[in-house]
Design a protein that fits this description.
The protein is mostly helical. It has a domain of 188 residues: Tetratricopeptide repeat domain (Serine Threonine Protein Phosphatase 5, Tetratricopeptide repeat). The chain has 25 helices and no strands.
Length: 480
């Protein structure tokens, strides 16, 4: 029997396409919204609706006027639906929000989460992809997309998601373990284990297709791991053979070190870099690469220690070890960056990174001049000003800090740099709240809530300034 809802949804979709042709975006959005309501499991309906919403706002990238204020209530509904695990309602509220701002990364991630919980994997993958497009460094967005793509067997893109997380936070144990798991699953799928009925089926699928391949496989299978293999059969062995042939060529050691580093054989990579250093009379670029590999090892070990401590919260010794390794890593990073600044005096990114390490270990007087220098680089001006403001405040110079935040917000916006945007407003809100300027504090807290309803303790602080939940009774009556 035909599905009447599907038929009606197709009719609305057809009308929407006709409205798009006339650039009647309002009516097109209405048509596609009806199609989504009737058949919410069709990804095309969602994609086309969001496209029309973007056209409705002239592709301005921010949505409706005062979108932040308009979305505050919707974000509250999404939060409540998530708490109740009412995924259909969360889905509906996320779409409602996307009609106000179709570029909002958090709303797209909310839609992805809700659809994933309803086994709508294709829509979830689409929504999370759009969320990641809006903020490629967002750990939550990448994690959501990574897990969805892993389940769908899209291993390469899934691994890239967890790789971005690991690069942003080397202590993230889930990202590290997921990369390993994805690699294993990818190999299993290529080998046919998930599709074959038995091991014999897999072997049959992998049978050589010609005499040359049969002979090649037989020769490889007969050799142990440490025995020689024919040229071209092992990239690593080819590189080692090149070193034996020309042991004075530094580039050969560097190529092998890079291969081993990519293959996560980090201690072995350092061995090759040591040999390259010796041959090159301690070339500074090779020294820096060795330092980078050493730091990677320290980050991995620190991450593993943090993961063990997290899984065993009752074992104080593990937490102490984890904290100690973090401190050692930070100290080493400071040493490495400080030495490199002398060799690269014009690298403002390096100055920013060193300043950030000093900030994290509370050495604010050392961080302040470095952030000031880094702010001269237009690529990191706002980032540096926000961090500089924080350092001034923590060093007891609140007025100087306030000036940096105000200066940063002259060019900061929530779309391009949401984290620094929120931090600047948060610090200003705190500073004004402390000095009794509640109206100014309220304005800054509202700016944050318009883009991130759950940011720190902002909602609680705003409610305390306003004397409670100003709209609580109205919302409750409306819901009843």
């Amino acid at each position: 029997m035909s599905d009447p809802l599907a038929t009606a949804a197709q009719e609305w979709f057809k009308k929407g396409n006709e409205a798009m042709g006339r650039q009647n975006w309002d009516f097109a959005v209405e048509c596609f919204s009806n199609a989504v309501k009737m058949k919410s499991d069709v990804v095309l309906f969602r994609q086309t609706r969001h496209l029309c919403c973007r056209k409705l706002y002239g592709d301005n990238g921010t949505g409706a006027k005062m979108a932040g204020m308009k979305l505050m209530g919707i974000r509250g509904k999404i939060k409540k639906a998530r708490g109740k695990e009412d995924w259909a309602a969360m889905d509906q509220h996320a779409e409602e929000g996307l009609a106000v701002n179709p570029w909002d990364g958090q709303l797209l991630a909310d839609l992805g989460e809700a659809c994933a919980a309803q086994d709508r994997g294709e829509i979830a993958a689409y929504a999370y992809r759009k969320a990641v497009e809006s903020d490629k460094t967002n750990i939550a967005f990448n994690r959501g997309l990574g897990h969805i793509l892993h389940e769908r067997g899209e291993y390469k893109e899934a691994r890239n998601c967890f790789k971005r997380i690991y690069e942003a936070d080397p202590t993230d144990g889930d990202a590290r373990s997921m990369m390993g798991r994805i690699d294993a699953d990818s190999v299993m799928d290529r080998g046919g284990y998930d599709k074959a009925g038995s091991t014999q089926d897999v072997k049959a699928d992998k049978a050589p297709t010609n005499a040359y391949e049969a002979d090649r496989q037989a020769r490889r299978g007969a050799k142990g791991r440490n025995e020689s293999v024919a040229p071209g059969e092992s990239e690593e062995m080819d590189m080692r053979a090149a070193i034996r042939k020309d042991p004075e060529n530094v580039n050969n050691y560097m190529k092998l070190a890079q291969f081993l580093r990519t293959d996560r054989q980090l201690p072995q990579a350092i061995e090759q870099l040591d040999k390259a250093l010796e041959l090159s009379n301690n070339d500074s670029s090779i020294l820096e690469e060795k330092e980078d590999v050493e730091l990677e090892i320290m980050r991995e070990r620190s991450g593993e220690a943090a993961e063990r401590a997290r899984k065993n919260p009752e074992k104080e010794r593990l937490k102490e070890k984890s904290d100690g390794m973090k401190k050692e890593l930070m100290t080493r990073e400071v040493e490495v960056l400080a030495s490199r600044i002398d060799r690269h005096p014009n690298d403002m990114k390096m100055r920013f990174e060193l300043a950030d390490r000093y900030r994290k270990i509370k050495q604010y007087p050392k961080a302040i001049p470095l952030f000031q220098q880094a702010s001269a680089d237009s690529r990191m001006k706002e980032d540096s000003l926000v961090m500089l403001g924080e350092c001034f405040v923590r060093a007891g110079k609140a007025d100087l800090g306030r000036r940096q935040f105000i200066k940063a917000l002259e060019t900061l916006n929530a779309k391009d740099k949401p984290d620094f945007f929120k931090q600047a407003h948060y610090w200003l809100g705190r500073l004004y709240e402390k000095t009794g300027k509640n109206e100014d504090a309220e304005n800054h807290y509202t700016e944050i809530l318009s883009v991130d309803y759950d940011f720190r303790d902002v909602l609680k602080r705003l409610e305390e300034i306003q004397g409670g939940d100003e709209f609580g009774d109205i919302v409750d009556d409306d819901e009843d």
